[in-house]
Amino acid sequence: MTPFTMRVIEIIRSIPEGAVMTYGQIAELAGSRRGARQVVRILHSSSRKYGLPWHRVVNSKGEIALQDEEGRRMQAMYLRDEGVPVDDRGRVDLPARQYIPGPD
DNA sequence: AAATTGACGGGTG
DNA sequence: CCACCCGCCAATT
Length: 104
Hints:
The chain has 104 residues and is mainly α. The chain is built from 5 helices and 2 strands. It has one domain (3-95): Winged helix-like DNA-binding domain superfamily/Winged helix DNA-binding domain (Arc Repressor Mutant, subunit A, Orthogonal Bundle). 44% of the residues lie in helices and 4% in strands. A two-stranded parallel ribbon has the order 1-2. Helix 2 (23-29) packs across helix 3.
């Protein structure tokens, strides 16, 4: 596993309940400013295996990005369960909910 | 080895 | 807001 992948996994692990991060933001924090698509790939291959809170990752517009209808419903349900409002178009209030890690 | 493929993102109109 | 277009980049074809 590449260092980048490891960092991505750690970052996703660090997203608090009730908050979200975007693909691009995660990629950038992990050291690849244009690696958003790699974050997608990693979620596909590792979210189940490592028990990641994959539902806390949305796109830069604050939308659920999953294509599969079933998956979209699951993600919206998980988010609402932890107190994040999701509208009928699958969007969350990004400015209000985006997790920005401190400089630690 | 070349083309295709995304749970993306920013810019433009 | 919406629709496009184009850059991105590693895994799969």
